[in-house]
């Protein structure tokens, strides 16, 4: 048996810094496959097909659902979003770990299909800090920010079911904790017992 | 809620190097409480009461069983051995992690009472290396070594139920993996969710 790839899920409220922490952690884990979501919404300025999203039309999306080619999916503001299954399985077969950056609802769908997935919740150090970050980002209206904060509290309530909980008060420390988790999750008997020789 | 102490169990065949790896790991984790077993056998040359074992008589041992003051116990070669519960609970209450170096059967007893205990199995790199170490130790007869090797194979078969499996091919690396586990096991939502402020 070769090294087995593992699915890691990173969830956390919008504005908690998932992208930044992940980017920092990836420097020590360059082989990890970062899943790219499929969506039916159009690309925004600067978004590249296959990098930020796989931009596909409604027909293609519905076909993926029919063919069980999505590990999770949801509708949001009139568009579909989902995690393509095939690239994930290909990476796992190659022994690569896979990272899914998805929300709590998506995580529940993936976990139902793949109970060996490791779920990590990234939280802001405080609610006021989360609000500050959303305001400073300058991309959302006051109304939108209120919506995001309400949603964040709902998501956080479900974090109790996660395997790990990381507080992003310092990007480098949070990234180091992520890497600790990636490492330790490969210390499992199923993956190592056969390595004891003769 | 303050930092919660956690029970860690280290099992592994006689001769796999549990003591050495643990001693090395403890340098980074000096606060951990190392449980001292109680036994009814007499002290051997150089063994200190309260350090190597708590040496007690049969009466005292049976009283501890009656009063539910042992987390696990077993008889071996006409003597009793067990893990006193009270010092473990006191350490946990102080927020200290606790290490129990016990065999697979003891681990099963503890886990039945404390399902939040984290079980770590330490294995030798190979069976021939284990035999070599037992022979080099020079403390056991050829017969005793054969017995230990048979027992080791029985124990290893049960390692599949453990949370973690570490191969001791290099003491420092194995100790580092132990410390990774000690750290990561405190990244749990139950212990951290309340730390998100306001």
Question: Can you describe this structure?
Answer:
The structure is a homodimer of 198-residue chains. The first copy, chain A, is α/β, with parallel strands linked by helices. Chain A folds into two domains: 1-32 and 97-198, Rossmann fold (3-Layer(aba) Sandwich), CATH 3.40.50.300; 36-95, Guanylate Kinase phosphate binding domain. Chain A is 42% helix and 19% strand. In chain A, strand 5 and strand 6 (79-84) form a beta hairpin. Chain A is globular. The A-B interface holds A 121, 123-129, 156, 159-167, 177, 180-181, 183-184, 187-193, 195-198 and B 121, 123-129, 156, 159-167, 177, 180-181, 183-184, 187-193, 195-198.
Using the 3D structure, state the CATH architecture of the largest domain in chain A: 3-Layer(aba) Sandwich
Number of strands of chain A: 9
Task: Note poorly predicted spans of chain A.
Answer: none
Largest interface: A-B, 34 and 34 residues
Q: What name does CATH use for the topology of the largest domain in chain A?
A: Rossmann fold
**The CATH homology group name of the largest domain in chain A:** P-loop containing nucleotide triphosphate hydrolases
